[in-house]
Amino acid sequence: MNNFERFQTFVLQQSAAKDGAISPPIIGSAAFSYGDPKSAEAVFAGESRKPLYARMGNPTNAKLETLLAGIDQGDGAVVTSSGMGAIAAVVSAFLQSGDEIVCVGGLFGGTYAFFTQNLPRFGIKVRFFKADEEVVLSPQTKMIFCESVGNPSLTVVNFVKLGKLAQKHGILFVVDNTITPLLFEPFSWGADIIVYSTTKVISGQSQALGGAIIYKEPRKDLFIHFPFLQNFYENLGKDAIMGVIKKRALRDFGMSMQAHAAYLTILGLETLPLRIQKATDNAQKLFLALKDKVKVLYAKNEQYFPFGTGQMMGIDFKSKEDAFTFLEHAKIPFITANIGDSRTLALHMRSTIYRDFKANELEYLGVSEGLVRISVGLENCAMIIEDFENALRKVQ
Ligand SMILES: *Cc1c(COP(=O)(O)O)cnc(C)c1O
To answer: Which GO terms describe its biological process (predicted)?
Structure first.
């Protein structure tokens, strides 16, 4: 059984009750009554598994967490208010002033802005390496961070090398797998923590903002650099990272998911395997149809992505004018800052998300003057190809 079918079976069997409501309940309450003072004390002592307060979690989120952990066969998950919330939670829960992150390969603009414009204010330094550069750690390096497929650079890093490097130095290896859930398995290549923006292909229809952190039992060699992790491990065992994230980030920074968003995300998650396979298939066909007509960027890597690299691609036009001409004539794509939707989406990068970045930053992030990011959807592939070819004719 392949990974798509494994997860498809798991999510459909686990999301609904065999006896009762098929669609999972939305528990919208912000607070939960404990019944009596002894029970209240037990909840706060962590001896009772009843919900404490919605900032720390709620039953609908807990359902989504169980399902999301199944994508990567992790030991558990923590959901957050957005993908940026997930990244901020991991960084703020594990790092402190004086620590350093090493970032490899291309990076989503929001993450890059967080790492360069805001983390330095808290004394956390980030150093950047290109996918093919030699990565050099320093004694302050506590985390290696990369994306499965760079958004929108479409770079793929050497995961084997980075995984081994992180293990050798007892530091965390965090992979943002937003673009390629089920297509890529970061835990198999040495990742300690996987983050997702569930806003993208996981929910799938632009219906809910959200993020997730997927974890497994922590490596014991992490305890040297992260002594607090050992304390959580002694209390929670394989769920130690859940404790770290909840007590050192969610509780105090409050990037918690709303129950209604969790519900909408579950609905999307139930069809993730079908959608991601179809969208990837469409993207591969579109790439082949266009590659001799225009400069198309699409990641290919058999070692890590035997089933393809997902639905994201780029068209590298010669100029902003060409990019605009294409976008003005293409009828199928929605012009939007999102990716991973069931619909085909497109956006000129330089004039929108990346408008405030400097030349050297744009170069690192893989954003050229004419780059149009495409997220291929589930529409009929021949129609997408025809529409793109028509729009390209207006450019040439
Ligand atoms: C969109 C995105 C994020 C941020 O997610 P939000 O849900 O928009 O906060 C992080 N990483 C990647 C790769 C993304 O594409």
So the answer is: cysteine biosynthetic process from serine; L-homocysteine biosynthetic process; transsulfuration
∠ Cα 121 127 132 (to 5°): 155
- Tell me the residue range of the domain where 368 lies: 272-395
Nearest-atom number in ligand 1 for the CA of 86 is: 9
The verdict on 31 and 117 lying in the same domain is yes
Q: Which of 240, 269, 298 is the last residue of a domain?
A: 269
Distance 87 CA to ligand 1 centre (A): 9
Dist. CA 197 → ligand 1 center (Å): 5
What are the pLDDT digits (tens) for 301-333? 999 999 999 999 999 999 999 999 999 999 999
CATH number where 239 lies: 3.40.640.10
Please indicate, yes or no, whether residues 261 and 282 belong to a single structural domain of this protein: no
Report whether pLDDT(396) > 80: no
Asked which of 269, 284, 307 is the last residue of a domain, the reply is: 269
Q: Count other C-beta atoms under 10 Å from residue 393's C-beta.
A: 11
Q: For residue range 119-146, what is the model confidence (pLDDT) as tens digits?
A: 999 999 999 999 999 999 999 999 999 9
pLDDT in tens, 144-203: 999 999 999 999 999 999 999 999 999 999 999 999 999 999 999 999 999 999 999 999
Query: In sequence order, what are the residues at sequence separation of 6 or more whose Cβ sits closer than 8 angstroms to the Cβ of residue 198?
Result: 68, 79, 83, 208, 210, 211, 212, 265, 268, 269
Query: Is 110 exposed, middle or buried (CB count within 10 Å of its CB: 0-12, 13-18, 19+)?
Result: middle
- Ligand 1, atom 2, lies closest to the CA of 197
Asked if 280 and 262 sit in the same domain, the reply is no
| Chain centroid, CA 353 distance in Å | 18
ω into 59 cis (within 30 of 0): no
Rounded to the nearest integer, the mean pLDDT of the chain is: 97
Q: Say if residue 221 is in the same domain as residue 302.
A: no
Count of structural domains within the chain: 2
Asked whether residue 85 falls in the same domain as residue 196, the answer is yes
